[in-house]
Each structure stands twice: as C-alpha cells, then as structure tokens.
Amino acid sequence: MFRRTLLLAGAFVTALMTQSCSLFERDVYVIAERPEIQNQFEPKILWHTSVGNGVDRFYSFLEPGISEEKVFIAARDGDIECLERSTGKTLWSIDLSDQEENDDRRSARISGGVSLGLDAIYVTSENGYVYAVDRSDGSLKWKTNVNYEVMSQPLALADRVIVHAGNGQLIALSDFDGHQLWATPAEESHLSLRGTSSPIAIENGKLIMYGTSQGKISIVDAETGMLVHSFIVSLPKGGNAIDTIGDVDATPLFIDGQLYAVGYHGSLLNIVSRGGWKKEISSYSNIGYDYSDLFVTDDEGHIHSISRSTGEERWMNRELSYRNVTAPVSYRSYVLVGDMDGYLYWLDNATGTIVSMDDYDGDGLYIPPIIYDDVAYLQTRSGKVYAITLKDETED
Fold first, then answer.
1. Whole-model pTM?
2. Are 305 and 313 in contact (CB under 8 A)?
3. What is the pLDDT of residue 5?
4. Which among 5, 152, 228, 367 has most CB atoms closer than 10 A?
C-alpha cells in the first residue's frame, strides 16, 4: 500500500481548509498584497542564465550546487548544466530525459538536487531514479531505481549517497555504482505533506539525521542504517485529519553542537542544549541562521527571528502572509526570502523590516538563494539563474 500524500503549501493549504467550514472550522485566509517600499539599495547582478523549463508549477526542490569554480544547475525536465562560477558560461550539459526509463513518462521529473560529491553530482526524481553525473564532463556515471519517488536532495558522503524516499525509507547507495547498501523500514501509510526532509550527516559522517512524516527526527548509523535515536518534534492533535498532519519536512539544522528542528503543526526546538527550549511555530521550510539567530518562515508566510541560545523571538514580519514565502537565508546583515510572484525580499536582520525588493521571475520563487563566497545564487521556477551580490560602497 502506498502512502497517501497531500500537497499542502501556502495558498494550497488555504484552499483545502476552506472548502468545508463545517469540517475544518477555519477562517478564510487572505493573501497579503505585495508590499510597496522605497528600495534602500539595488543588488548587482553579476550574470544570469537559464536551465530547461525550471520546475514550472511543480514543487521540485532544485537548487544550484556550488563549488569553488563551478555552478551546477538542473531542471525538472532533465536538463543539467555545469557553469563557470565567475561568468555563468556553460561548460557542459546533459539531458536525462533521453534515458530510456523516461520514454513513457511526462519527463525525467527531476525533483531533488543538486548535491555535490567528490567526483559526481547527484539528483533524484519522482520517477524513482537517482542519477550520478560526472562533475568534470557531464557523463552519466550510474543510475539506480529505488522504486519510490524521491522529492528531497540526496546526501553525498565519502563512499555512499543517502536518499530519503517518499515512502519514508532512508536508502544508502554505493557511490561507485549505485547499488543499494541498506535501507530503513518504510513508514506506515497515512495522510502527509507532499515532501520529505533531506538527510544531513553529523559526527564526521558517522551518523545521519533526517525528519520523518511521523513528526520525529531520526538518527541512524551511516554504515548500517540502524536506528540510534529519535526525537519527537510534532505530536498529532486536533479532531480532523488535517490537524493530525505533523511532518518534519524541514531539514534538521546542526551547528555549533546544537540541534534545531521544526515541524508542521509542531514546534521549533533546540534539542541538544542542556534544558533546551521550545517555540510554538508550525513550518515545513528549512531553517536559516546567522551567528546569533535562527530565521523561520511559518506556514502562514510570517518570517521569525529567534535567538539561538534562548528561543526568544526578536522580531516577526507579517507583511508576506500566504504569499508562498520561501525558506529564509542569511546574507550579510540581511535575511532573504522569495514569494509566489517572483520577488526577492531583503529584510534587515536586526528589525525584520523589508529594505529592498526586486522581481526576478513572474512565475515565482520556490527556493531561497544559495550563498557562496559573498554571492547569492538564485534559481527561479521557470529556470532562470542569477548570481547576485551587493554593490561596494565605491560603486555607483
């Protein structure tokens, strides 16, 4: 029996929950108008390009993979390109839709990536395939069918690749040829958000941590896949099926010896600290951070700044309610988020005030920028890719 999944994100949650007031007893949620502000600065675009048709209207989590000299980008239809990081010039490309397993499919349906290994990059697909592509020339090294869709980014370790399948299994594949090394048990079938947490490595790659659709953070041994520990983040509650959804789709955050996690219909938790702390926030988006604070986009599109040490809320911005706001990311003294209209917003990290906003794609933004070496790399829904920075004070 396959797990029933439900695409619940931003305005889609609103539409579903307001179909029957007698059943769900929800207010009608109103999408906030786009803010109108006087920009305090204009970011500088170093270069821009595009890849395939992007992710279109689908919720494929495809973000650029960045190395010292190259940028790797992918589109849902199967196009993958390697760019020169300084110029955006295409160095090689490959089209995975040409693979025979995708002949009778709508497309390659690439849904998770791009993840960087030592010699290869990795992407996953809703068709159930994991692909390893050579970083140097774009040739296909191997492909493996894991027999279930994979929505999240894979984790590349020294000798293996870890993927989190849609049925809840964590699967380890050999980095050499893609054969399966181990797999955790599948999770029980139940109503769930459409999406899965990306796994992360801790303890120098000895342990793997990931969120589950059962509202937990699980930690397994990287060599065997055996469960080492688990923490509850979301507990089922409420009188209907929607209220009992408690997925942990956000990737756990482990920094400076501290573990932070957030769940849908759950809480933002500091689990490792002695005593820890808990903040009631419901979210399915990844957590941003800087040296002192965490940044979280909740399921209503509000952006929060939370003290990493105490859990105290420093500020909350409500101006982008229900605009399908992306996860936040920290860049210099700002917090960056995107929205469904393709605007990238720059929030002052001390106050939460929007100080600048620019339109990059009318089809919308789904993922936040990736920050590397003081440059923000942004990929839009339609496949546009931008390298953005802030102008130096000496520039006009």
1. 0.88
2. yes
3. 39
4. 152
Contact 284, 9 (CB under 8 A): yes
Contact 259, 206 (CB under 8 A): no
Centre a 10 Å sphere on the Cβ of residue 132 and count the other Cβ atoms it contains.
26
pLDDT tens digits, 241-295: 455 555 667 888 999 888 898 887 667 878 765 678 989 888 889 999 999 999 9
Which parts of 146-276 are beta strand (E)?
155-156, 160-164, 170-174, 180-183, 192-193, 200-202, 207-211, 216-221, 227-232, 253-255, 258-262, 268-270
Element (H, E) at 165: none
Cα separation, 107 vs 62, whole angstroms = 15
Beta carbons of 188 and 194 less than 8 angstroms apart: no
Q: How far is CA 62 from CA 2, 68, 174, 264, 333, in A?
A: 25, 19, 22, 21, 26
In angstroms, the CA 264 to CA 254 distance is 19
Sequence-distant (≥ 6) Cβ neighbours of residue 104 within 8 angstroms: none
pLDDT at site 189:
53
DSSP secondary structure, 280-317, as one string = -----SPPEE-SSEEEEE-TTS-EEEEETTT--EEEEE
Phi-psi region of 309 (alpha: psi -120 to 50; beta: other; left: phi over 0): alpha
pLDDT at 93: 98
Backbone angles phi, psi at 269, to 5 degrees: -120, 140
Report how far residue 206's alpha carbon sits from residue 227's, in angstroms, rounded to the nearest whole number.
12
Q: Which CATH architecture has domain 5-389?
A: 7 Propeller (2.130)
Phi–psi pair at 347, nearest 5 degrees: -105, 135
Residues in the chain, overall count: 396
Residue located via tokens 């500091």: 270
CA dist 110 → 61, 63, 96, 105, 128 (Å): 9, 11, 9, 12, 10
Three-state helix/strand/coil letters over 20-52? CHHHHCCCCCCCCCCCCCCCCCCCEEEEEEECC
User: Closest Cα partner for 175 from 207, 134, 203, 210?
Assistant: 134
- Please state whether 54 falls in left (phi above 0), alpha (psi between -120 and 50) or beta: left
Q: What is the pLDDT of residues 166-208, one digit of tens each?
A: 888 999 999 999 999 999 998 765 544 455 788 999 999 999 9
Closest CA to 180 of 142, 216, 207, 153: 142
Report the alpha-carbon distance of residue 362 to residue 315 in Å, rounded.
Answer: 29
Peptide bond into 262 cis (omega under 30): no
